[in-house]
Amino acid sequence: MLSLWKALQGLPLLAVLVAAAADYPPIPEDLSTPTQQRLAIHGMNAVSVGWNTYEQLAKPCVQYGTSASRLLKEACSTSSVTYNTSRTWANTVVLTGLSPATTYYYQIESTNATVQSFLSPRTPGDKTPFTTSVVIDLGVYGADGFTVDADGDPARKALVPAVDPSLNHTTIGRLADTWDDYEWVLHPGDFAYADDWYLTPANANDGVNAYEAILETFYDQLAPIAGGKLYMASPGNHEADCEELGTAAIEATCPDGQKNFTDFNIRFGNNMPTAFGSTSANLTAKVGANSAAQLAQPPFWYSFEYGMVHVTMIDTETDFPDAPDEPYGSSSLDGGPFGYSGQQLAFLEADLASVDRSVTPWLLVAGHRPWYSTGGSGNVCKACQAAFEPLLYQYGVDLGVFGHVHNSQRFAPVNNSVLDPNGMDDPAMPMYIVAGGTGNIEGLSSVGANVSSNRFAYAETFSYATLTFEDENNLLIQFVESATGNILDSSTLYKSHTEQFVNQ
Ligand SMILES: *[C@@H]1O[C@H](CO)[C@@H](O)[C@H](O)[C@H]1NC(C)=O
Ligand SMILES: *[C@@H]1O[C@H](CO)[C@@H](O)[C@H](O)[C@H]1NC(C)=O
Ligand SMILES: *[C@@H]1O[C@H](CO)[C@@H](O)[C@H](O)[C@H]1NC(C)=O
Ligand SMILES: *[C@@H]1O[C@H](CO)[C@@H](O)[C@H](O)[C@H]1NC(C)=O
Ligand SMILES: *[C@@H]1O[C@H](CO)[C@@H](O)[C@H](O)[C@H]1NC(C)=O
Ligand SMILES: *[C@@H]1O[C@H](CO)[C@@H](O)[C@H](O)[C@H]1NC(C)=O
Ligand SMILES: *[C@@H]1O[C@H](CO)[C@@H](O)[C@H](O)[C@H]1NC(C)=O
């Protein structure tokens, strides 16, 4: 199949005929047209711009500035990469020296590009309140993905230009409708659900193309959000392979270029950051942060800071003992490792230990698979808990953000399934949420059996979470129904944050 594909690449007409089976977006006549735009926090005062094109770019460039009509600065790179079965090249350019918390305008250099804008990152230590939206397990909308009944004003859907207004992608629509209410997006894992192509019978004979078609469509649908908001990504199980719980026969047709997190790695590898240099006055913290930057392996594990928060992104799929997606792992997804043995955990410890809470009082860890969930033991990752939970407790992580289970859940502060006696009033243990109910072809997961640490669980309609960092001591956590914007659950975590370096 792979050699057939390579043969067809030189024959555009035939390639289009083959592609017709899969529901590909049309290739723009101008092959330099930017598609699938995505932005990320790339460092202090730095933002990376990622986008795909239907041709390789010798020198991807972006013009930018603080006035839409005067884009006086230019940044370029030579980063234009692809893999065997992709129709597109992933381009990345990093914009540096940005003034913090400032609206910038940017235009990707092409004979067919428009001006877009973003808010640059807040400086670590800026104590201005802000909100982050959390979306996990977000799939493609439409024939190869999921659909829902209309439940909102169709006119408002027009605010999401790249999504067919008839398609009612409720979570992306809500992110567009609430544009001024949040500053950036956290998405730890499961994008598009391209590996679920075989659930649509029409794709049966053309999985290789269906997989790519779903990725192109999804990232076009996401571009109105990810091209205007800093959008932080880490891996989930659906990035691993051509098939998620598919059959051996399907696996045999999966070309190497679609295994082992290839699209995710090519797409986000240059887009995501490593770890920030510490702005702490403490030398131990500076050395630790430098060490974390060396050990980081973006887009799999890395960290960043934004105003009052330090966020550490972990990879719950590979690179720790008994990791589920590794060869011989419990998920049969045959991916990774992406670092040397022990590298991810060494990163996590160096990173968490270096967080100066007088600069960034809030410390979050975000990953894909949870170890607290309702719905029985099949929903929790015991190997993840064994690897990560002791470090989260030791360094006083405030909140763990996870998905994988397709619903919304909130947990009381907890460690090793023992509840913190202080509850939400200055606990020593981390609290956790699951925000996996945003919508995908697999549908919602029922709430199922309860656990004692659960405080809220919802699986009736698509939903996502928002985190509002109100001040150094109060974090407001809300779950939002995507279709209506109704607040489903609201809670506030209070932390005194009196210790500069937590090590308990
Ligand atoms: C220019 O880009 C727009 C989308 O941004 C696309 O719809 C259009 O087809 C492109 N034009 C050409 C000539 O490729
Ligand atoms: C989207 O919404 C419109 C109007 O609200 C409705 O008629 C249509 O069936 C919906 N489309 C899908 C795919 O659910
Ligand atoms: C991709 O194709 C090239 C030849 O075009 C081949 O050398 C390479 O091994 C392939 N890579 C994968 C990962 O299949
Ligand atoms: C620096 O931070 C470390 C913990 O990372 C702590 O042990 C040490 O006392 C701090 N040094 C100063 C001068 O505060
Ligand atoms: C996946 O990719 C990584 C990094 O490129 C490589 O080290 C690893 O061996 C690959 N794993 C598999 C199962 O091919
Ligand atoms: C926290 O949980 C870990 C298991 O993940 C356990 O080893 C450790 O003893 C617990 N710490 C406290 C203080 O309960
Ligand atoms: C699970 O049980 C806890 C405590 O017993 C309760 O507070 C919580 O509401 C329950 N969760 C659900 C979804 O019923």
UniProtKB/TrEMBL annotation:
Segments forming domain Calcineurin-like phosphoesterase: 181-407
Protein name as annotated: Purple acid phosphatase
Top-rank taxon, per record: Eukaryota
Family designation: Belongs to the metallophosphoesterase superfamily. Purple acid phosphatase family.
EC class of the enzyme, as a word: hydrolase
Organism (species): Coniella lustricola
InterPro entries referenced in this protein's UniProt entry, alphabetically: Calcineurin-like_PHP (IPR004843), Metallo-depent_PP-like (IPR029052), MPP_PAP (IPR041792), PAPs-like (IPR039331), PAPs_C (IPR025733), PAPs_N (IPR015914), Purple_acid_Pase-like_N (IPR008963)
Transmembrane segment boundaries: none
Pfam families linked to this entry: Metallophos, Metallophos_C, Pur_ac_phosph_N
Position of the signal peptide: 1-22
Residue ranges of every copy of the Purple acid phosphatase N-terminal domain listed in the record: 34-113
Domain Purple acid phosphatase C-terminal: 430-490
